Amino acid sequence: MGELANLFVKAAFIENLALAYFLGMCSFLAVSKSVKTAFGLGLAVIFVQAITIPVNWAINTYLLSESGLIGIDLTFLRFILFISFIAAMVQLVEMIVEKYSPSLYSALGIFLPLITVNCAILGGSLFMVSKEYDFAESLVFGIGGGFGWFLAIVAIAAIRERMKYSVVPPALRGLGMAFILTGMMGMAFMGLMGIDFTAFGK
Amino acid sequence: MHSNGYIFRFVLIMTTIVAVVLALMSTGLKGIHDKNEAVYNKRAILASVSSQLGTDLAKLSDDDVQKIFNEQIEQKVIDVKGNEISKEQVIAAGYKGGMAEHIDMSKERKKPETDRLFPMYVFKKADGKKLYIVSVRGNGLWDEIWGNVALDEDLNTIAGVSFDHKAETPGLGAEIKDNAAFPAAFVGKKLYDETGAYKSVDVVKGGVSMPNHQVDAISGATITTVGVGEMMIRGIKYYEPSFSNIKK
Amino acid sequence: MAETNVAEVKQPAISFGKEEKKLLTDPIDSNNPITVQVLGICSALAVTTLLSKAIVMGIAVTFVTAFSNLFTSMLRNAIPKQVRMIVQLVIIAFLVTVVELTLKAVNYSIYKELSVFIGLIITNCIVMGRLEAFAMGNSPWKSFLDGIGNGLGYAIILVLVAFIRELFGKGTLLNFKIIGNTPEYVINTTDSMLFGWYANNNLMVLFPSAMFVIGIIIWAHRAWNTKLVDVS
Asked: What dihedral angle (degrees, nearest 10) is formed by the CA atoms of A36, A42, A48, A52?
């Protein structure tokens, strides 16, 4: 249990997909102009991440590997299967949100389908493969990773909303400043390296 | 606009083409892929004795690497008691190639200690002397780290080491591999002290007190380099029974 | 990028006139995918630690963008609307798998260094972005050129960032030792009178530095091309 809690903290803060690995930057920079939209997108990312990573784990373990159900090494199909499932998942989420919460659906607008091509989602699945997590670890990694991305985008949206009142050189205004801010946030998150909850009680 | 039947046929044809092309490419290139991976692993092992090779390891072609391995390196697989395991037993343990270079140390780590297999490479230098290369594996800050340690014929003095990692931070933990000064610091250190007690080589911060058995940590990469020390002490200890067998 | 439907002039299928040239040059300056369109940033960060990785990545992305543009444009009238996104993704994923298998055979060590980021070309917003914005509504040859142009625009920024990061972070370029503190380097800081003070900037090796470098490149780009300044 402690290992999983440690993994959650690692995925959310220390190995933050947005601020340590800079994944999902496209929507991160494009959507973070206001906190409200950032909040909605972040929540959607948590949801999609929490479901796609464990299911992709199952696809990888039971379908693609030599010791799976099909019995031959199909790892060359990994990219296609992962992204197809992510696309299908996002489509499903879209339909559910539209049915059960039309207001949320219209608030999110185009950002919902854009989650499919968010590098953080596919990146999360690929990291899961390279770190060889099992099912429980994949689930925790999915929730934690999504949560970390959510925190990052809300934080930078809050900062950018305030940047409107600052004096920034014209050529640096907007996008250039956002890059520099993200870099600084990344450096700040590096300070969290080395935190290990299992170290307590040793 | 398009009927359901059309959509179905379109998707079916597309998936078939994609799957067939990729399957052909994958099987066609498998030979090259496996060879590349094998040479890559061989290079990693030779990195621990790179100073003894005569030329820069990076300048050696893949064929040269294979040649050195075939002519100058004898591969052995040891169990935890120090006994040599035959090729058939290695294959039976799940490694199709049956040789030391095929052993997956990360898989072995997950087994109970009594079941583990350890690779050993005996490198015959140009002057006839032998170097014994052993493999160790441990934990860095983010993920696993591993290394190869080359020992002189006395099975006590370190002739060279090479380290690698999965996910350490470039500029910090990754310096165990990228900064040549770190592995170089291990050369000449000894595993056993004057009384014959096993000490191996530890990595410490703030200054070395036992010059033969300690190396300075990399500043800013404490956890990774401490992991290296732990790996050196625990990992080489597994080979002690085999050392006694060789010395006999 | 607007289609003019004024006169139905019969265009030759493959030509290389002013319009085609613009498809190649626009993305390098006024419509640069990274600095203007804000696309393709994710993989731009981890792969710019070494110049060799940036060059390989630039070539890979140009290949994938150009050919996925080409295939999508050739199929654009045949793709059923309901499965449009999945079809596009499968085309992209297929091409990326081809790149990965090829790289694994041709240069195993760079394949190992790039690892996860080859796969992330699939979600590289540039590829998908160009498919939607251009290939779905233009001829195959033009789409192919547009793909090459955008790939090159991306590659140029990547190479520029990697150049700065590798030179100032490690003192090497493509593993040629340029400036450092041992005699193997071209400029040996322990002996040199001019550069004795120089030490490698370790921040350049860490990920956030890529953000700073790109931010400054954007600043310089917009200061030079004032049409791009953000007036919102």
From this structure: 170
